[in-house]
Each structure stands twice: as structure tokens, then as C-alpha cells.
Design goal:
6 strands
């Protein structure tokens, strides 16, 4: 299987270098190119046809939100990676088709997980943002929902709602990351949800999420 080809779009060379170091260390991911602004990133993406583009929001030329819209309309998966976790940025990025929204201060493992999630057709959002957004949903109340899940699946749903990656869920429950991934796929099928963000939202509606989690 060919490795996932990633394009990095960020106006800070040290950030791009750090991302390249993390991603190129993975056997299933390779950095195909770098761009220092949105306009160059768009042109490079059209030429290189990467599998996933990681983009900052605030860049010279086309900003990351507009770049996300243009690339996703062309069928390219985009993950936004930024310092700014403003709710309006998260909302705009997801509305523009982003497959994920990660904070630069997140652990390197989350960057890798974000690329893999995008390739799997999933969406990954930094835990801090997920918890904040989903907590806001509960302010208007939540209807009771039935829980068709097994005890183990319910445990995993609680951890997904906290924003944990597959590897972190595996460590928490003493199972492999692959087993956690399989459980999550089964949960999505049972609940008819498209990705782990949907699982987290369902957990909050079902009262399974910890309202004090960070």
C-alpha cells in the first residue's frame, strides 16, 4: 500500500519542519511538499495531488479557511492545524469541508491520528475544542436517547467524548489501538453516525459524557 501523501501549508518554516519530522517518521505517511502561503499551497496541491493537506488559518494570500473550501470542492481532504481555537474558526473550517481541526499545541500523535482519520473518511478535532463545543450543546437541554451499546462500547464512547485518540483509548482500556478502532467502527454502524465527532455528540445527548472533562 502506498503511503499517504501530505502537503503542508504554513507560513512558519519551523512549524513545517516540525510537522515534516513527525509525519515522515511514520511508515504509512510521507510529506509530498510544503507551501508558505495559501496561494502557493493551492497551486502545489493542484500539481502534486496530495491525499491530505494540513493548513494553518492565518497565512499570506489565500487564508486557510478559503483554501479549505477550494481544496475540498476539488476532492482533497483538508485538516486545519492552527494556534487559534476560536469557535467561529472551527465552525467555518468544518462548514468549508475540513476533515479535522487540530491545535498546534496538541501532542504529535494527534497530528498523525488526524491524517489517518482524514484518510479513513473520519473527522478528528482537538479534545479541548470538542469538549467545549459539545458542552455548549447541553445548555439548551438534551432529550433522552436509548443506548443500544454493549458495556465495552459504552466505555469507548465515554472516552471518545473526552477527545481521546484510538491509541489513548487503547492505553486506557488495555486494548490495542486497532481493537479500539474496530469498536468505534461498530459503534458508528450501530448508531448510524459518520465519524467520531458524531459519536461524541451522541454521548453528550445520552448523558454519557463527563461535563467536567477538559
Amino acid at each position: 500500500m502506498n503511503p499517504t501523501r501530505v502537503l503542508l501549508a504554513d507560513d512558519h518554516p519551523d512549524v513545517r519542519s516540525g510537522f515534516r519530522l513527525v509525519l515522515d517518521s511514520q511508515p504509512d505517511i510521507t510529506v509530498a511538499g510544503e507551501a508558505a502561503d495559501g496561494t502557493a499551497a493551492l497551486a502545489l496541491a493542484r500539481r502534486l495531488r496530495p491525499d491530505v493537506v494540513l493548513t494553518d488559518i492565518r497565512m499570506p494570500g489565500i487564508d486557510g479557511l478559503e483554501l479549505t473550501r477550494l481544496l475540498t470542492e476539488a476532492g482533497v481532504r483538508v485538516v486545519v492545524v492552527t494556534t487559534f481555537d476560536l469557535d467561529e474558526y472551527v465552525d467555518a473550517a468544518l462548514r468549508n469541508g475540513a476533515c479535522g481541526f487540530l491545535l498546534k499545541r496538541s501532542a504529535p500523535a494527534l497530528l498523525v491520528e488526524g491524517v489517518r482519520a482524514a484518510m479513513a473518511g473520519d473527522a478528528l478535532i482537538s479534545p479541548q475544542i470538542t469538549v467545549r463545543l459539545l458542552r455548549a450543546m447541553t445548555k439548551t437541554g438534551r432529550p433522552a436517547v436509548a443506548n443500544p451499546l454493549t458495556h465495552r462500547e459504552t466505555e469507548i464512547v465515554r472516552l471518545v467524548a473526552r477527545g481521546l485518540t484510538n491509541a489513548q483509548i487503547g492505553a486506557e482500556l488495555f486494548i490495542s489501538a486497532g481493537t479500539a478502532k474496530t469498536h468505534i467502527a461498530n459503534i458508528q454502524a450501530k448508531l448510524e453516525l459518520g465519524n467520531r465527532v458524531g459519536i461524541a455528540a451522541w454521548a453528550w445527548r445520552a448523558g454519557l459524557a463527563d461535563p467536567h472533562a477538559e
